[in-house]
Amino acid sequence: MPTAAQHIVDTLAASGVSRVYGIAGDSLNGFTDALRDTEGISWFSTRHEEAAAFAASAEAGLTGSLAACAGSCGPGNTHLVNGLYDAMRSRVPVLAIAAQIPSEEIGTGYFQETHPQELFRESSVYIEHVSSAEQLPRLLRIAMREALSQRGPAVLVIPGDVLLTRIDTAAEAVLPADSATVPAGPGLAGAAQALNDCTKVTILAGAGVADAREQVIELAERLQAPIVHALRGKEFIEHDNPYDVGMSGLLGFASGYHAMMQAETLVMLGTDFPYPQFLPRDATVIQVDIRGGQIGRRTRVDHPLVGDVRSTVDVLLPMLTQKKDSKHLSRMVKHYGRTRKELDELATPARRRIHPQYLTRLLDEGATDDAVFLPDVGSPVMWAARHLTMNGKRRLIGSFTHGSMANALSQAIGAQASHPDRQVVAMAGDGGLSMLLGELLTVNQHDLPVKTVVYNNDSLNFVELEMKAAGFVTHATDLGRTDFAAIADAVGIKGFRVEKPKELEEAVREFLAHDGPALLDVVVERQELSMPPSIKAEQAAGFALFAVRTVLSGRGDELIDLAKANLRQLL
pLDDT at position 570, please? Predict the structure, then answer.
């Protein structure tokens, strides 16, 4: 009879899971040994369990299918938490095997003992302790189905001795099941009436429009409505879209902000847009989300519609009259054209400094048509949001809701492992890369052709910007000068380093064309300002206070650097 561990492995393999990310440990011995002898599924070693969970999260995000990771008892479990939190908030299906100490020792304060059911409660859609091998087959199927149906991580806590117990149960494939959810008629009728009765409609599209692109564009045409995209909606709705007017929010720009603020009716489609200060206060709001609990979290909603975007828009469209007044749409599209031109002008070479926008533009132009981009939280996300071009084949994945540092390289590992023939570009901050720097060894060990770009500004750059906006003198954000290209070379990865603007274009070309893993270390302008689309009075006051405090602290030269970096005519 197979062991419980072998049953898990056989079930995962039958369900299409090809690898399990993690770090080996004695409480996982039965599990890793079963993987060693099973074809079609393998153990994928990382240097940190957090990276293992991030890798599984990225794989699930790319494929839409179940991905898996594992951690040994105690610290192996605790290290998984951050990556699973990201999977939870990105809503991607992951199964985590959390090994536990020997069954007879639970509750005694044994070596490495923790309480995983409490530990993972907030970072999972399902968490259960398997106390006997007889329980395992049923709990495993439940956990996998919960992960797939709720789109999040499910965790099974299994003592090492239970993993080694033999059971006589055949493996069973657990596969995704498609479904459609449509709101009830009265709710749809009310939303349709509100849309038919107003002249200025704006659509805000999030990740929930992933499979509803054609429907959303038809809705915009019917309503003559500009489409603002949230960050997680960018890859699905921005490209080849005559109604797109950019982003709003802290990462957005002016056109998206004004399109929302000037709307009489705002239609929120599949988005949990987190910034209420960027939502209109007096507009009629219609919100469509398959998860009813998400509706009304950020603003008052007049017409809540619980359903998936594609099915809901399909049944809503026949109820809408064709609008002839396109003044609102035309104004916002023209505004977007001006805003886009201004942003593109910032992404140009300078004489003495490398601006991060220019680096991002070169990456965008040089990457393949189906590249996967993974920006670190912080300023790389800002530049990715504003200067990467999506086309329906490219993907943009990150820790966009959980907002964790160190996601770029870790997620790139999962993206590349699951898509070995696809170009994967990790857009790493120097802070994020250094936090899980050991994963460069993982990339080299598995010979993953990941292309890692380092936005090297010697600082926690976005934190510095937040400090300035709030009026604080920047402090505790300096990282010191690091040559990441030299580190890459030392661990067997081809390293490139660029400090001068005139060298950047050729370096990006060689870097992207390199056959195998490569790292491009670019010294970018530290004082670059990335401003939100609308400057509030408190932000303006904060910058003024920052200037005064900086001068009084004897660091007035920082203000000069700030001016030089952002007044391009001085360069």
Answer: 38
Q: How far is CA 46 from the centre of its chain?
A: 20
State how far the Cα of 69 lies from the Cα of 72, in Å rounded to an integer. 11
CB-based contact 365:348 (threshold 8 Å): no
Summarised one tens digit per residue, pLDDT across range 92-127 is 999 999 999 999 999 999 999 999 999 999 999 999
Residue 282: enclosing H or E segment and its boundaries?
A: none
Containing 304, the helix (H) or strand (E) segment is: strand 303-306
pTM (2 d.p.): 0.93
395 residue type, one letter: R
Strand partners, 496: 520
Q: Is 462 annotated as catalytic? A: yes
Q: Order of strands across the sheet with 395-396?
A: 395-396, 372-375, 424-429, 451-456, 518-523, 494-498
- Nearest CA to 221 among 248, 201, 206, 250? 201
Of the residues 377, 498, 508, 523, only one is catalytic, namely: 377
Q: What is the pLDDT of residues 252-287, one digit of tens each?
A: 888 999 999 999 999 999 999 988 888 999 999 999
Question: One of 6, 100, 112, 215 is an active-site residue; which one?
Answer: 112
Tokens 């596969």 locate to: 175
| Rounded Cα gap, residues 65 and 432, in angstroms | 27
The yes-or-no answer on residue 111 being catalytic is yes
